[in-house]
Amino acid sequence: MSITDRNAACEWSISGMDCASCAGKIRNAVGRLPGVTEVSVTVMSEKLKLQLDTSQTQRSEVEDTVRKLGYGIAEKGATAPSSKPVPSPGAEAHDHSDCSGHDHGSETSDHADDTQTSGHLHDDPADRGKRWYETAKGRLVIGTGLLLAAAWCVSWLIAGPAGYWAFVAACVIGVAPIAKRAYTALRLGEPFTIESLMTIAAVGALFIGAAEEAALVVFLFAVGEVLEGVAANKARDGIRALADLVPKTALLEIDGRTREVPAESLTLGQTVLVRPGDRIPADGEIIEGTSGIDESPVTGESVPNTRGPGDAVFAGAINTEAALRIRVTTEAQDNTIARIIRLVEDAEEARAPTERFIDRFSRWYMPLIVALAAAVILIPPLFFGADWQNWIYRGLTLLLIGCPCALVISVPASIASALSSGAKRGLLMKGGAVIEAAANVRQIAFDKTGTLTHGRPQVTDVVAAPDMSEDEVIRLAAAVETGSSHPLAQAILRRAEGVELPAASDARAITGKGVAATVDGRSLTVASPRYASEQGVLSGDLADRATALENEGKTIAVLFDQKTAFGLIAMRDELRSDAVEAVRQLRDLELSPIILTGDNPRTAAAIAEGLGTGFRAEMLPKDKLVAIREMAASGGVMMVGDGINDAPALKQASVGVAMGSGTDVALETADAAILRDRVTDIPAQIRLARATMVNIRQNVTLALGLKAIFLVTSILGITGLWLAILADTGATVLVTLNALRLLGFNPEKTG
To answer: Which of 250, 318, 545, 653 has the smallest number of Cβ neighbours within 10 A?
Structure first.
């Protein structure tokens, strides 16, 4: 992207974030730059997106601003650069794969004036996979710990003030980089950061003679960085694991010979050889061989499915039995795994209403805490003659309690874990807003064909008019349906395989009713019995026979011209084996399922009776849209369809869920998608959404509850500085660990 573009969509990779406060600092600082709009910062996917008017601000200025805050930044697709850690224990060190809590560490870079940082201590990408003590954050903990231990030794071994000054030195060395970052944040318009609160608390503690406690607080702060980093990084591991599903290399076949090439270099139309036990390197179509395909890494389906020539397969799936030759049908950046990763990453931008409320709350929470701390320090001594040192100490303790990290991470941590957990099982939801809406639905509307049924109807009966043969009815109907992708059209075309079809011209769709074309000089139509009756061509014995077949739960197509009906074609699409169980589970969840179908009432009634649901039949796409609006008046509605014909209804519903095995439409049309063709995944998705909202409420209660308790005990003088920092760090760690429980949640369990 040229920097000469006046209004450019820009994207960077950001390293060092693992909480919402990290994202907030970047969003606020970058958003203040002239010409910068639509700033979006996502924590788990580590991305910064914005619109930039480069006549006002250059890309390099955005990057410099991010670096000042202590985060690594790189162009999209590149690795965010790490910084050189300062060897001194008190110097700023980076650990740029993770943000850990509050201390973002400064970095030494090419920007000499921008070395101070104001965020949490960051992880260097090179630190990924290392033990905690091998990372930059770990080294900082060890350094500050040694300083504290040395101060204790001095105080024990040497009488007099030497011990006190040893603790002063340990505190000053440890807090110096934090103070620098606080100053940098202040310059960028961020006065209320944990760095500023830590600096004020530590310096204030020194002034009132609490040097030992001040040094201990600095050490505990560094320990909290490590704990928070470890916990938060696990939430990101699920997304990283998805990328590892696709093998790095592939066996490319050219002229009968194979050679190993990078999987990302594969292009459309190339042929790859996949041996038994190998992962499939790209989305493709089998051209030779039949084997069991384990799709559990992609869809969560535990039982391997047999696939043969003509069948589609996913990148990342495992070939279990025999060698396969596969034609590549999708570029590496657009394969199923890549699209799932993008969906999960981009889902962070669709924030839940609860998350938006927490963000708004946190904006005035910290200033309120600072004001309260000032009041605690000033009012008792000034108006009641209380001891200044005692109340200054209590006020400083309040400052440390004031960090909202646990609160702001409570929602995104739960949502990130839920998205990752769902993705492993083929349950995709596009963000927190979708999760919250899914948790609150009260009604479920199902499309029939391809959702409750397999979507592959078979021709069961052909009824010809007296002057026609059954073969001629099929031949002409198939000619009219040539080129159509509708499941009923495909059923007719499959029945006509091997038959030479006449040419058709002027083909056109009659929305929601049928298809018309000119065949052998005649204008023919294949449509529903209702439409044929409206045209005045279906009557007598054919009409009676159509009614009888519909009563058997079959779908009827009528072949006719402007004057006469030539015959009937009856088709039936079998219910999915788990449809009845899915409806039972939905009723156990106190949800009301209903079928919305374009099929005739008799066929719809037969299907609905077998499932025990209500139904509305003969519905055009616009009718489904109206029905969803009517249902929404009495509560949240989830619409489940195939993502194509039901697009208007899917968009209108509180949550639109597309069923389909990784198709573009299934992944991109609706709010959520089911990768496995299993209806029972619908109640599973709702259970996951509800469990997520319960987890969020637990996190918010935990974060606010601990803050409230320690606010009171700090004012009363029961708890001190070191317990305050433990409360802050502990709350963040507990909230993150509670959110990580969702990674192990099994939404398929009904008990």
So the answer is: 545
CA pair distance 35, 256, nearest whole angstrom: 56
Give the 3-state secondary structure of residue 654.
coil
Q: How far apart are the C-alpha atoms of 701 and 43, rounded to whole Å? A: 22
Q: Are 323 and 361 in contact (CB under 8 A)?
A: no
CB 57 within 8 A of CB 20: no
Separation of alpha carbons 189 and 465, rounded Å: 82
User: Is the CB of residue 305 less than 8 Å from the CB of residue 350?
Assistant: no
Instruction: Report the C-alpha gap between 587 and 578 in whole angstroms.
Output: 14
DSSP state of 85: P
With beta carbons less than 8 A apart as the criterion, state whether 135 and 107 touch: no
Domains defined along the chain, listed by start? 249-332 (2.70.150.10), 427-453+576-675 (3.40.50.1000), 458-572 (3.40.1110.10)
Backbone angles phi, psi at 482, to 5 degrees: -55, 130
For 280-336, the pLDDT digits (tens) are 999 999 999 999 888 766 665 656 778 899 888 888 888 988 899 999 998 888 887
**How far is residue 442's CA from residue 462's CA, in Å, rounded to a whole number?**
42
How many of the other CB atoms lie within 10 Å of CB of 523?
13
Pick from 64, 67, 136, 66: which is nearest to 98 by CA?
A: 136
Other residues' Cβ atoms within 10 Å of the Cβ of residue 173:
18
Using DSSP bridges, classify how beta strands 565-572 and 458-464 pair: parallel, antiparallel or unpaired.
Answer: antiparallel
Angle at 431 between CA 12 and CA 584, to 5 degrees: 155
Q: Find the length of the chain.
A: 751
> Exposed/middle/buried for 633, CB within 10 Å: 0-12, 13-18, 19+?
exposed
CA dist., res. 685 & res. 426, Å (int): 10
Q: Residues 54-110: pLDDT tens digits?
A: 888 999 999 998 888 777 888 875 555 543 333 333 333 333 333 333 333 333 333
- Sheet (strand 305-307) strand order: 305-307, 291-294, 318-319
Indicate the SS3 state at residue 403: coil
Q: What is the pTM of this model?
A: 0.69
DSSP of 258-292: EEEEEGGG--TT-EEEE-TTPBP-S-EEEEE--EE
User: Distance between CA atoms of 134 and 131, rounded to whole angstroms?
Assistant: 5
Residue 621: its pLDDT value, please?
78
In the residue annotation, 18 being an active-site residue is answered as no
> Which of 114, 123, 127, 447 is the catalytic position?
447
Residues 6+ apart with CB under 8 A from 423: 238, 242, 340, 343, 344
For the record, the structure tokens of 331 come out as: 């570029």
Non-local (6+) Cβ contacts of 497 within 8 A are none
Residue 4: count other Cβ atoms within 10 Å of its Cβ: 8
CA dihedral 386, 389, 391, 397 (to 10 degrees): -170
